[in-house]
Design brief:
The complex is a heterodimer. By secondary structure, chain A is α/β, with parallel strands linked by helices. Helices cover 22% and strands 38% of the residues of chain A. Chain A is globular and about 70 Å long. The chains are: A alpha/beta, B alpha/beta. At the A-B interface, helix 7 and helix 8 of A face helix 2, strand 7 and helix 3 of B. The structure holds adenosine-5'-triphosphate (ATP) and magnesium ion. Magnesium ion (MG) binds next to helix 1 of chain B.
């Protein structure tokens, strides 16, 4: 059985714990102990009110069914993009274990490193040791500790100072089938005045609702050094019987900008936590996200903007569309430290409910410890405006088409905030999902 | 005017809003090639009648009959009414953020022409109608009615009418909110559209629109009913003297 009981502890001889150099093994041991010490989060605990944590108690199984790549077509297409230079590189990741980097030679000449984390712990020891677990380590929760102890292999990306990676880097993560568990991990360091775009796509898993679900527990750490410009798209389009947990943390230094685009479309259960720490004056973070749920899909999303320095600017715009009996809970925390004067922070979460059986919660949280800030948040939850629908139908447009237009109109302004070159890629995913709304 | 069969035939229509009856038995026949005008005090039910005919979800037709070209409208959903040839230019057009005017217009025209229709002429037609109505080309990529001024919204309503070429157009206070030049442009648009095969029903408070678009019939609506009908001269008299004389003549009380 792949599913664990709530008392499960990671044995100290788990094979993953022996991976990597000694310093890494000892970090893994610390995280293992952390995981074992922490109880399953009680349902009253912050961020656990809406989701049953026992769904994430599933450990790596030796027999995790490797179904091979369901992304064969996509990989083929991306190879073409690589050869036409529309893509900086392609990294495939099967089950958080099998990492392959394609087409990265050209970038290597510029000093850009795109490689398996297991290689990087040797080849780029200093960088990895300095940054790994720096943002998602033992101070976080049980499931972050679980990934930290049990990740098998991950992806490491480093862009040297003053280097621009012009085309996006595509990471394709595929989960194994029913009953499998994976702990994908990503570490990114974007150097001073460097520039990088990543599309981090998670898919696969199990489609078989009668079997044990597939489970993915991911961790993404991104460092944007002074004046760097990073754009990160997280696309979750797992198969229907897949439970996923993802924690993302980025830290950006003075003058750096970070664009985060969380897109969640798939899976049975998806709990994601995106956070950016604005750590130096002039840092700017924007998060423009979208989530579509149907059937009985369950989404639990959290965002954090932590202003740890003054003169920083953050903005969040998350759109949620739900149909059938889908559920979404969104908790958005803005934290502004006492010493972080003259900050601006905005947050908006709008939820469009297409069926009466859907449920959406939206909870803004503000921890603002000084007066010199400009901060606002807004949230709406509601069905399609019948008057808008009427207006479109009055011009001859049929009900379903009119609904689709309104839903598309609901997300388009958010989509339009994403820079043009990225928008084209994202629009494709969004359109495909919209066809089923 | 012509004694041919009516294009729009309304018989004893009653309309309720939130269980309150606001249209209390209206009968009206509009023939092909005719222009009618309805005038009446605020709150007399003019927009309720227009919205009810178009199938607005808040305006429930509780009694009566309405036919367009012999086909009953009341069993049809709003989109079917539109495709059957009915058009309403709204007094207060709603904004639909995220949907561009061009995309919306294309979908609307496509729905009228049918799924597999040739749309190769759309762009050119759309451009021409925009320029004829003095709508700046930049409006094509703006979100529908989102942040448009009152007058801009009205022009866009008439633009839609020109694109869809309905057989029966109801224009609810299309003249209000228009500046003097816009009134002229929009009126010219209505006159270009109007021919001996279609009908126009103007809902208005002012004679100035009727100077440009000449009505064959003028009706006065009060308290949910058409209480008086006449020719173009009736509008002039209303403009001059207000509604009090009508009330007196009919023994009605003013207001609600
Ligand atoms: N959506 C609504 N909800 C509640 N009452 C309404 C609604 N729409 C109309 N009414 C009421 O119905 C009556 C008729 O309103 P209607 O808008 O049809 O008048 P009108 O003749 O178009 O007025 P105006 O000249 O001011 O546009 C009014 O008493 C109005 O308050
Ligand atoms: Mg009115």
């Amino acid at each position: 059985m792949a599913k664990l009981d709530s008392e499960y502890t990671i044995p100290d001889l788990a094979p993953e714990l022996q991976r990597g150099p000694t310093w890494l093994q000892s970090r893994r041991q610390t995280l293992r102990e952390k995981f074992n010490d922490l109880p399953l989060p009680p349902r009253g605990l912050h961020l656990w009110r809406y989701t049953d944590p026992s769904k994430f108690m599933q450990a790596q199984t030796a027999e995790a069914s490797a179904t091979g790549s369901r992304f064969a077509d996509l990989i083929e297409q991306e190879r073409k993009h690589l050869s036409e230079s529309h893509l900086a590189g392609l990294v495939t990741d099967f089950a958080g274990r099998d990492i392959k980097a394609l087409g990265v030679e050209k970038l290597a000449a510029k000093g850009v490193v795109i490689t398996a984390l297991s290689d990087a712990v040797e080849s780029h020891l200093d960088l990895v040791e300095k940054h790994l677990y720096g943002l998602i380590g033992s101070e976080m929760g049980k499931f972050e500790a679980m990934n930290g102890a049990l990740w098998n292999d991950g992806i490491f990306v480093y862009v040297p100072d003053n280097t621009t990676v012009e085309q996006p880097l595509h990471l394709l993560r595929e989960s194994g089938g029913a009953g499998s568990a994976q702990f994908p991990r990503l570490l990114v360091v974007v150097g001073r005045n460097a520039e990088l775009t990543i599309i981090d796509e998670y898919g696969g898993g199990s489609a078989d609702k009668k079997a044990d679900p597939a489970y993915s527990n991911g961790a993404v750490e991104i460092y944007g050094l002074e004046d760097s410009r990073t754009r990160y798209v997280s696309l979750q389009r797992n198969e229907a019987a897949t439970n996923s947990y993802l924690t993302h943390r980025a830290k950006i230094a003075s003058g750096a900008s970070m664009l985060t685009v969380p897109l969640a479309f798939g899976g049975a259960l998806s709990k994601q936590n995106f956070g950016v720490i604005l750590n130096g004056p002039g840092a700017e973070s924007n998060m423009y996200g979208m989530l579509f749920g149907s059937g009985r899909q369950h989404f639990d999303n959290h965002t954090l903007h932590h202003h740890a320095a003054g003169k920083t600017h953050s903005n969040i715009d998350i759109k949620v569309v739900l149909r059938d009996k889908a559920i979404s809970a969104y908790t958005g925390l803005i934290r502004i430290d006492e010493t972080a004067q003259t900050c601006e922070a905005y947050q908006e979460n709008r939820n469009l409910l297409l069926s009466s059986g859907t449920k959406a919660e939206t909870i803004p949280e503000l921890e603002i410890l000084n007066e010199d800030v400009s901060c606002s948040h807004g949230a709406t939850v509601g069905p399609i405006d019948p008057i808008q629908l009427f207006y479109l139908m009055c011009r001859g447009i049929q009900l379903e088409a009119a609904q689709r237009m309104i839903v598309s109109g609901f997300v388009v302004p958010t989509l339009n905030r994403v820079p043009q070159d990225m928008r084209e890629r994202i629009t494709r995913f969004v359109d495909t999902r919209l066809e089923n709304v | 005017m012509s004694e041919q069969q009516g294009l729009l035939e309304i018989k004893d229509i009653h309309i309720s809003v939130e269980d309150k009856e606001v249209v209390k038995g209206v009968s009206l026949t509009i023939g092909r090639g005719e222009v009618h005008a309805i005038m009446g005090p605020n709150g007399s039910g003019k927009s309720s009648l227009s919205n009810g005919l178009m199938g607005h979800p808040s305006y429930k037709i509780t009694r009566g009959e309405a036919k367009l070209g012999g086909k009953s409208l009341l069993d049809m959903a709003s989109d079917e009414r539109s495709r059957a040839g009915l058009f309403l230019a709204f007094q207060y057009p709603v904004a639909i953020p995220g949907v561009t005017v061009a995309n919306f217009m294309r979908s609307a025209v496509l729905s009228h022409r049918g799924k597999d229709a040739d749309m190769s002429d759309f762009r050119k037609l759309f451009k021409k109608e925009m320029s004829d109505l003095g709508v700046d080309a930049s409006f094509a990529t703006r979100y529908l009615n989102d942040g448009f001024s009152g007058g801009e919204k009205k022009r866009i309503e008439i633009l839609q009418m020109s694109m869809l070429q309905p057989s029966m157009a109801i224009l609810d206070e299309t003249d209000s909110g228009l500046d003097i030049d816009a009134l002229k442009t929009v009126s010219e648009g209505i006159n270009r559209y109007h021919n001996d095969q279609n009908g126009v029903l103007l809902v208005t408070h002012y004679q100035r629109l009727l100077n440009y678009v000449k009505p064959d019939f003028v009706h006065v609506m009060m308290d949910g009913r058409l209480v008086k009908s006449g020719g173009a001269e009736l509008a002039l008299k209303l403009e001059d003297q207000g509604y009090e004389w009508v009330e007196n003549e009919l023994g009605l009380k003013a207001g609600v």
